């Protein structure tokens, strides 16, 4: 039995459905008032802030996969402290107590306990706690999700407006398609080679300028670009998005996925292929 925590979200739900499609028995943690839309999965009521409910959810489970986070909180009581830090600690403790065999944690690339961004720092603290737990584990560290960030950044251009970049948009990052991360999450459940490894996951290294140019090519028109200095408010964007975008201007994160792709059999989605699919889905 595989417990998926965060299955009511986009990534967690995709992972749960992929596991179900592969014939796995899947249990999903849902909160009061929420539901999971695939009847093939067993559902269990619980909350990361309720340790007793997590013990029940982990009972009889072989693998825990968690994608839950409070980056875009759905309830007032959901905070980085209560979910990403303490909630994940509660889940690790429940997995230990119930004898779970393996724990898959979806973190972020660059996570560290001393990171300046609170969300990324909480991910790093959870990675550290998991490493010290005595559990078998796999940590997935995806670079920014194209599925998540492109609607924020490129959305206005699809309606004829300008793209607003934080900084000059010339730092390279290996932005990743969510479907690729789903593939590695399934591999982390199925493959012994993933045990006790940190898997940094990304696509081809690109800049935000590359992203804009690719959308211009696919759309067949030039997209105007305006820039905002890091740390300044960005019109139309939530503060947490602007903060994370500003942090991407402090470093680069190019990844070579060739070896990992061969090892786990996950094909890397190119920027061009993703953009073509993204635009087609909006037509």
From TrEMBL:
Keywords: Photosynthesis, Photosystem II. GO terms for biological process: photosynthesis. Residues 6-190 form the NAD(P)-binding domain. InterPro entries: HCF244-like, NAD(P)-bd_dom, NAD(P)-bd_dom_sf. Gene3D superfamilies: NAD(P)-binding Rossmann-like Domain. GO terms for cellular component: photosystem II. Pfam families: NAD_binding_10. This is NAD-dependent epimerase/dehydratase family protein. It comes from Nocardioides immobilis. The lineage of its organism: Bacteria, Bacillati, Actinomycetota, Actinomycetes, Propionibacteriales.
């Amino acid at each position: 039995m595989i417990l998926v925590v965060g299955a009511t979200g986009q990534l967690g739900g995709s992972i749960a459905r992929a596991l179900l499609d592969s014939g796995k028995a899947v249990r999903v943690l849902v909160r009061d008032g929420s539901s999971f839309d695939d009847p093939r999965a067993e559902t269990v009521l619980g909350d990361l802030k309720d340790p007793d409910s997590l013990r029940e959810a982990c009972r009889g489970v072989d693998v825990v996969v968690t994608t839950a986070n409070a980056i875009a909180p759905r309830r007032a009581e959901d905070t980085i402290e209560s979910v990403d830090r303490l909630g994940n600690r509660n889940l690790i403790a429940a997995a230990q107590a119930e004898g779970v065999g393996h724990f898959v944690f979806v973190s972020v690339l660059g996570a560290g306990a001393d990171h300046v961004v609170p969300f990324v720092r909480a991910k790093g603290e959870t990675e550290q706690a998991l490493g010290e737990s005595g559990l078998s584990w796999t940590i997935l560290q995806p670079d920014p999700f194209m599925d998540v960030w492109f609607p924020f950044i490129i959305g206005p251009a699809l309606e004829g407006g300008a793209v607003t970049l934080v900084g000059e948009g010339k730092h390279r990052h290996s932005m990743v398609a969510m479907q690729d991360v789903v593939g590695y999450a399934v591999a982390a459940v199925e493959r012994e080679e993933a045990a006790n490894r940190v898997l940094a996951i990304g696509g081809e290294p690109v800049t935000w300028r590359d992203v804009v140019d690719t959308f211009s090519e696919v759309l067949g028109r030039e997209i105007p670009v305006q820039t905002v200095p890091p740390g300044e408010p960005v019109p139309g964007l939530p503060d947490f998005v602007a903060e994370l975008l500003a942090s991407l201007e402090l470093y680069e994160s190019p990844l070579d996925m060739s070896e990992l792709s061969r090892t786990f059999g996950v094909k890397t989605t190119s920027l061009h292929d993703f953009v073509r699919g993204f635009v087609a889905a909006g037509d």
